[in-house]
Amino acid sequence: MKICAFENRGKWLADLLALFAAFFVLYMGLSFMRPLASPDEGRYSEIPLEMVRSGDCVSPTLNDMAYFYKPPLCYWLGAASIKVFGANKFAFRLPNSLMGVLGVLLSYCAARALYGRRAGLFASAFLGTCILYCALANIITLDMTVSVLIAGAMFSFIVGIGAKSWKRTWLFLAFFAFCALAVMAKGLIGILIPCASIFIYALLFGIRAFFGKFSKADLIRAAAGCVLFLAIAAPWHVLASIANPPYDCAEGVFSKNWEGQGFFWYYIIHEHILRFVDPSTSMREQPWWFFIVLAPVGFLPFVLLMPYSVRDWLRGGLKSLRSGNGEILFFFSWTLFTILFFSASSSKLPAYILPIYPALAVALGGWFAGVWESGNLGRLRLLRNILAGLGFVAAIALIVLYFVLEHKGKLMEKAPDMLAVSIVAAATISLLTCVAIFFARKGREKAFWLCAFATVFAIGIFFNPVATFVQRASAEPLVEKIAADRTDGDVYAIAFDYNIFQDFPVWLGQTVYTLGGVPEEQKFGFMRARKENAPRFIETPEGFAALVKSAKGNVYVAVKDAERDAFARHYRAKFEVVARERNLELLKIAK
């Protein structure tokens, strides 16, 4: 394995600063144009907001009820951002996008350490602009943070086993620290994926050869790392368990019954075990092949390079990989286990596959750098032509998408602006594609590939404005339209579908009533304080009438237009529609 020394620190710093600036602009530059997307962006903005208001950093809440779906690291980061920048889209999205940038920088560092500077630059470009990674660096979820932290752990390990002295010590400690932070971001997968992947790598590499890489001093490093892991990951888990014990009526940790259960049951049994094995708990079931298909799609357009690279890696067989390119086996193990693990789960969402892309990017970056330096880019001529065609397809698709959505009535009120965005984006992509083709016809292969990277980067720049076309409507305009009439005595409720209105409490700056049953994700929090929470869930006309009568100000109800009449019939309510945004409406209830 080739481990490049950390020399030439000036170039390292210059590259990292340039990459930081470029990808920060890519992920945050036009983010102000896109409303929060519910449910995820609304939920993961509201939880940190409530944490800031309550000051409780141990027990996160959603709609003022305990929310232990995941550990709190992302909520802590969101709360810190809100404290500094206020409650706005920039502050809500900043931690997630910065994590996306960190993943790019870590990939650069790993690829440069393993293969050299050019490989680092290519790896960062492959990762930062591939379709799924770029999209999730713009959308607030927990998956970006845990994926980047897992990548940090894995990169620390593979670079660390080839390093010596103090560098080896720091990298091994970094492995444990990143694992602990990954656990704090999304639970036990933060340690499971790294350890299981390393185990598979050891089997493929050869157990004796693998353990031959370690010395007695590494046992001390590992012991220190375990202490560091516990120091980071254990305190919150202990505090949350103490603050949320089971009640006397709890049936035990192996029961599926919510009643009386405490933090340990919900966090470990429900979230880590039942959601993995029980489709009725996860409610996110997909076919077993879901991630096998999605994994290559998420790495577009660079997945088109993979057949060439795989052919080169396998040319000498497994023995050659073990002796001269063992890190490819490591990246393969990392990718393989992640895909198999989530394929076996009964809970499947596209974002779950994100941890594989740093591995693919670094492996591909090292290979592409070798092809670049050998002057053998001409062998990719067929792929070059395909990429050029895809550039024009992307440009045309943007215009078609606009008119299709306009015809279906799914555009926001500022639809004319969206047409302008589509035209500018399509023109930019077409122009860059034409320049790339010009260089290809002149035989300037390297210039073509640089233009190809620029084209993919440009597509990413337009993600936020274009995504406005297709994401769910935001409740922000509903709140804006009543801003001048709001008073402290006003009461707000969401009718039937809390999920689609997750950003409604964000922009209100307060929690809301729910008309209907308790949403699935709030059941545990509801159960923990049933007596206090029950009045906030109104299911009968009499209960709603009492709420309206007791309100000191106006009563507003957020509802989907398709459910407006059902709301009026069930709750016997008279109202006027005071705000509308696509399929969302805000009703003012007549007293």
Could you give a short account of the major beta sheet?
Answer: 6 strands, mixed
Strand content: 5-15%
Strand order, biggest sheet? 5-4-3-6-8-7
Distance between the termini: 75 Å
Rg, alpha carbons: 26 Å
Shape: globular
Q: Look at the structure and give the mean pLDDT.
A: 92
Please identify the oligomeric state: single chain
User: What's the number of helices?
Assistant: 28
Low-confidence runs (pLDDT<50, min 5 residues)? none
- How many structural domains does the protein architecture include? 3
> Would you count the extended β strands for me?
8
**Structural class designation:** mainly alpha
Helix content: 55-70%
Structure description:
With 591 residues, the chain is mainly α. It folds into three domains: 68-374, no CATH class; 378-470, no CATH class; 476-589, no CATH class. The protein has helices at residues 9-28, 40-54, 73-85, 89-115, 117-129, 131-138, 143-160, 165-186, 189-205, 207-211, 216-243, 263-277, 279-282, 290-298, 306-313, 317-324, 326-344, 356-374, 381-407, 415-441, 445-461, 463-470, 476-481, 504-508, 523-528, 530-533, 541-550, 564-571; strands at residues 61-62, 65-66, 491-495, 513-515, 537-538, 555-560, 575-581, 584-589. The strands form two sheets. The chain has a six-stranded mixed sheet. A two-stranded antiparallel ribbon has the order 1-2. A hairpin with a 2-residue loop joins strand 7 (575-581) and strand 8 (584-589). Helix 9 (189-205) packs across helix 17 (326-344) and helix 17 runs antiparallel to helix 18 (356-374). The longest helix is centred in the middle third of the chain and has 28 residues, at 216-243. The protein is globular, with a radius of gyration of 26 Å. 43% of the residues are buried.
